[in-house]
Amino acid sequence: MTTTLNPGLTTFIAAKNAPPQAPTALLPREAFNDFLQDLGPVKLLLVHAPAGYGKTTTVAERLEALELNSAWYRLEASDNDPTRFGSYLANALNLTTAGGCQNTLQTLRDTGFESLEALVTSLLTELVPGEKPLFLVLDDYHLITNQEIHEAIRFLLRHLPVNQHLVLVSRTLPPIGVAQLRMQGLLVEITSRDLAFGADEAQAYLENRLPFELSRESIERAVRRVEGWISALQLLSTTAPTSQDFNDFVDQLEYGNQHVFDYFDELVGQDLSDQQRTFLLRTSILDRFNAGMVMRVMDDTDGQSLLSSLLSMGLFIAPVDPSALWFRYHPLFSVYLRHLLTCTTRENQRDLHQRATDAWLELDDAEEAAKHAVAAEDPERINRVLSLHGRKFFTEGQFILLQRCLDALSQDQIAQDPTLTLLRAWVAQGQYKFDEVENWLSAAENRLQASMSEDTQKAVHGEFSAIRAQVAMNYGDGDRALTLAREAIEQEARFLPTSRVAAASVIGEALFVRGELEEALARMHDTEHLARAHQAHQNVLWALCQQSEISVAMGLLQKAYNIQERAFQYAEENHLNHLPILEFLFRIRSQIMWEWHHLESAERCALQGIEILEAQGERWYVQSYTSLAKVAHARGRQSLCADYIGKIQKMLAAGDYHLDWVANAHATMLSYWDAVRDQDAIQRWLTVAPPCDPDMATNHFHQCNGRNRARALMSLGRLQEAKPLLESLTRVAEHYGLKTDQNRNHIGLAYLHWQLEDREQALEQMTLALQQASTTGAVGSFLRLGKVLIVILKALINEEAVDGMELQRAERLIQLAQQQRDFSRAIRISLDEAIIQDIIDRPDVPELIRTSPLTRREWQILSLIHAGLSNDQIAEHLKVASTTVKTHIRSLYQKQNISHRSAAIELAKDLLSKIQGD
């Protein structure tokens, strides 16, 4: 039925034909330039996404920024009247073309049009193609339900002049022939996936709105939780008064938020039929679904039409992949729907999960089937899933999922099945519950002894030995681990095919810990090949990570990097990027990137590790947080570093971790405390620090633990205690070929001897460190010394003690150290004659310094005054009487014509900054 557009005078509301007013602190979105420039034959730019994605704001902001000619028509429900629609459409174009559509408006006032299509025809005759493009924007087009208007838009699109484009901003796909336009190449789409803020945009957005600093990790976690939904980020920015509140708010989103629920209540409103509401509630248990899955879970044959009807409503339902056959709910909308499902008594959730389990098993999606079987609390279905796919879960490293499944089974069910026992024990081992491992194995042995043949018992014993070997390794009993692993590797693996792979891995790991690096590396190569033969992805990646770590210990960081590249390639080829083991790979990549001072890459790898482990729980973030703290320290971001140190301390206090993790974390904590002069924290750490036997430091983590103790002693001024410890660590590292630890130990010894004022030894140790760095590529370990590194290296260069590559490396390190921000309360620097002369010789140094030269002791005291030490503290530091310090200070003040400590601090700040390049 066609509507006649009757004549009459229309009073236009100006705001309806004007772009929206830009919000304050608008974020430019230059990524959308390509969508608007050089569209060529494209006639329709369709911007469709649910509410709150910034559709209108983005279009308006970019059109204005690019200075593109645009006509705006902001729609309301009342615009479904064809006469009203036609009038405003004509007015929008007339305003933009400076009266170019006046004839159409005049005809509309005088005689009207026989149809909306006739009005559009009149407009098309007046729209003259121009050199510059013209964009006609119809905002909130989802409010249009009148079929005649849809047909008029189809007609407009068919006949739009060259260089003129229609922009529809909508929550839904409009019924105007979108599919045909897409196939013809006449359509460009901008969806919620495009509009959602990425981490960089979210960071810029939040920094403009929050009065406190957020870590990149907090921002990325927020973006993941809300999937870049701009309204949710805006809610976060207005309700979180502190960074801790922000993080708490983000964590709570997983369980729901009343403000978000209220938003969805208003959005859904009363528009849903009972059948549609039932659809949403029942399918909310699914992480993804298609029409077939919907019909199985809903027990309804009308799944496709229901799905189509809901998609047309612009709710938070998005396609999973380009096929647009599988869909999922936005995570916050899913939480909302599951909340509603929990609140209703009409739905049997156990029955829904059971149906979902069976449906996913039919589709051979074991992971989804397992999740729903656990949610249904159905041991029979769980057992069925594990019997079919439990080994696969294990080889892929799905330990959390395995644990959830096995927790739902009785101890007797597990004990009577060797495979289930092995899976249960390996999961406990992976959770560091070593006592539980032996309990599970012993229970199964007692249960199965009477029912198994001698041959089967032998096979079971072999596979049980493999996991017992791993536990022994974790307890630090390398000899027992080797014995058990060699037993296991000789037996056939009947129940868990990867048992022999695990045993081979333990042998390599035990050799690594004992310092037999070459043999360990060869064993890990064998493990990798064995794991590949079994398609044991978890074990392949583990073996590659171990090879990388061994290469790092040998000082071959570039080789370690190349091995990591192989591991990343393997993960990509086998679609393993979701597996938790990838966190290990990103972690060790982050450590190399930090050592090479590629801070951005180090941070990115640590953040990717956290993203992978997000479902596993925060206790597993220790290593990633350690990397992020090191990066924050290197960048001079004190508050951020302090936040990470606090998190690490909390985790270490609450959990039991391997010494490798603990020592690495402690090294970062000590570095931070030393920078902020928190000697009380360092002293407390010494009283509870892990024991250290330098003669047994045959691996990188015992070496690190020993260096930590030496570092703490040096920070407390107990240099003579630190010296033999560092020397012993260095001898052991040299004996076992731990090149990277040798490099770090020489750096530590250089600093130690400099503090002892043993210039010759300090420079000799620094020379050795520079020579070894030519192989390791170490940078971060040098920069960890802080500003004193500049002084030592300049002294080395002044004496011409290094040349060639070592000289180039020294100069590069000086440059990096000068650029590095130091967040300690004051610059601590030890001065010797060469450095003093370097300052005096500078042309920008006051003449008074040259004419009234300070003695070396006076220079030292000047630097200590600048560091904030009192006279008594200076006396204690220099091991002299307080009266001697006062005498030197009087002389210093007289020579420089100053009378107050504040003037001395300013002088020292100026002079020391020159040598440090600040």
Backbone CA Rg: 35 Å
Which word captures the global form? Answer: flat
From the N-terminal CA to the C-terminal CA, the straight-line distance is 78 Å
| Low-pLDDT segments, ≥5 res | 825-829
Number of helical runs? 49
Quote the average pLDDT.
88
Please outline the major beta sheet. 5 strands, parallel
- Helix fraction? 55-70%
The structure class reads: mainly alpha
Task: Describe this structure in a few short sentences.
By secondary structure, this protein is mainly alpha-helical.
Q: Which features characterize this protein?
A:
918 residues, mainly alpha, 5-stranded parallel sheet, two-stranded antiparallel ribbon
Helix-strand layout with pairing:
Blueprint: H1 33-36, E1 44-48, H2 55-65, E2 69-74, H3 82-96, H4 102-110, H5 116-126, E3 134-139, H6 147-159, E4 164-170, H7 178-184, E5 187-190, H8 192-195, H9 199-207, H10 216-226, H11 230-239, H12 243-252, H13 258-268, H14 274-283, H15 291-298, H16 303-311, E6 317-319, E7 327-329, H17 331-343, H18 349-362, H19 366-375, H20 379-395, H21 399-407, H22 411-415, H23 418-430, H24 434-448, H25 454-474, H26 478-489, H27 499-513, H28 517-533, H29 537-553, H30 557-573, H31 581-595, H32 599-613, H33 622-634, H34 638-654, H35 659-675, H36 679-688, H37 700-715, H38 719-736, H39 739-755, H40 759-776, H41 780-783, H42 788-798, H43 804-819, H44 833-840, H45 847-851, H46 856-866, H47 871-878, H48 882-896, H49 901-916
Parallel strand pairs: 1-4, 1-5, 2-3, 3-4
Antiparallel strand pairs: 6-7
Helix pairs in contact: 3-4, 3-5, 5-6, 10-12, 15-18, 18-19, 19-20, 20-21, 21-23, 23-24, 23-25, 24-25, 25-26, 25-27, 26-27, 27-28, 27-29, 28-29, 29-30, 29-31, 30-31, 31-32, 31-33, 32-33, 33-34, 33-35, 34-35, 35-37, 36-37, 37-38, 37-39, 38-39, 39-40, 40-42, 40-43, 42-43, 46-48, 46-49, 47-48
